[in-house]
Amino acid sequence: MAKALLGYVGGSDPRLLAEMRRLQRRVQDLESEIVRIQAENDALAAAASHHSDALLDSLDVSKAEPALT
Question: Would you list the DSSP string of 3-64?
Answer without folding.
Answer: HHHHT-TTS--HHHHHHHHHHHHHHHHHHHHHHHHHHHHHHHHHHHHHHHHHHHHH--GGGP
